[in-house]
Amino acid sequence: MAASSVFKAGLFNHKVAVVTGGGTGIGKAITSELLQLGCSVVISSRKLERLKSAAEELTLKIPSSSPAKVTPIECNIRNEDEVKNLMASTLKLHGRIDFLVNNGGGQFSSPANMMSAKGWKAVIDTNLNGTFLCCREAYNAWMKDHGGVIVNIIADMWKGFPGMAHTGAARAAVDNLTKSLAIEWAHSGVRINSVAPGTIISKTAMENYKEYGPTLFKMSVPFSPAKRLGVPEEISPAVCFLLSPAANYITGATLKVDAGQSLYHSIWEIPEHDAWPEAPEGENTDVLREIMDKTKSKL
Length: 299
Ligand SMILES: CCCCCCC/C=C/C(=O)SCCNC(=O)CCNC(=O)[C@H](O)C(C)(C)COP(=O)(O)OP(=O)(O)OC[C@H]1O[C@@H](n2cnc3c(N)ncnc32)[C@H](O)[C@@H]1OP(=O)(O)O
Ligand SMILES: NC(=O)C1=CN([C@@H]2O[C@H](COP(=O)(O)OP(=O)(O)OC[C@H]3O[C@@H](n4cnc5c(N)ncnc54)[C@H](OP(=O)(O)O)[C@@H]3O)[C@@H](O)[C@H]2O)C=CC1
What we know:
By secondary structure, the protein is of the alpha/beta class. About 45% of the residues lie in helices and about 15% in strands.
């Protein structure tokens, strides 16, 4: 069951968004909520077939009252020409780009001393350079003259994270890029903010972290004051808020959406409680429940 948006219907009627990595996990949840609110969305990533089936599935959920459309466009954000094509094709299709959500990204887990230069570069190229290219192209192609809003999805990069040196460095860099662009592009009416999710259960995250996953989840749950992980439907409302006029006076900011996970220091004891609400119904809520049950029994 799709979570229904807390925002008013029609909030983004006739707006146009580009969501990188929009066919899976967090990007798909953001796309789904934008479509519900009337925003047309171009979803992009490397795997066109997966994008096409996500677009078909999402189209079925668009309310009949919404003017929104979802379109898949293949684009590897590491490739400058493909990024140029993504923005040019969006403009050809819709005539505007109001929102850009830089969500496409990822990493693998590896101790830093074992990391090949190629692996390091691949992660920096995807998460930092890809985000820069998408921002620059959306700005030059449209937002410079018409304004717009950009949200960069980063990660909890305030603490060290073993096995994640490459992505931590890239996400911290994106957070700083966000602040510099907020200043440089304010005169064009462009706002740009970052969102740092806590540990979120997404299908691809689970597939990609088959071995690392259990450790990640085992580590994340006790570090969460809420004593649970999140689902993609808990990230998308934060993104919609930042895209909306309710955030008109917010730029260059970083919004942590992690139920306090990044605040935890191991010297502190989190008080026992069981009052935190359950995750909302979403695509991965059942998976979350299963993991939480398994994790609890091992703690
Ligand atoms: C700061 C704290 C962060 C906390 C994060 C907490 C939890 C986060 C969860 C998530 O982010 S969930 C989202 C997860 N989804 C993904 O990570 C999927 C996307 N990931 C990828 O696509 C890859 O990891 C990639 C490296 C970003 C891109 O891979 P791609 O296959 O396109 O790159 P290549 O150019 O083929 O490979 C380059 C190079 O990279 C090395 N490498 C790639 N994968 C691995 C691996 N699993 N283990 C070790 N090394 C890897 C390797 O050197 C590759 O070179 P070759 O070996 O192919 O010569
Ligand atoms: N899940 C979590 O706990 C957390 C996730 N994040 C970040 O949130 C974002 C979404 O993650 P999540 O939904 O969990 O995981 P997913 O793996 O589902 O999402 C990653 C998306 O990025 C796309 N992508 C990866 N590399 C490229 C590339 N070179 N060019 C274009 N698209 C690319 C993938 O599509 P394709 O393979 O088709 O290219 C995929 O759709 C990622 O940046 C992730 O690192 C941050 C903190 C925590």
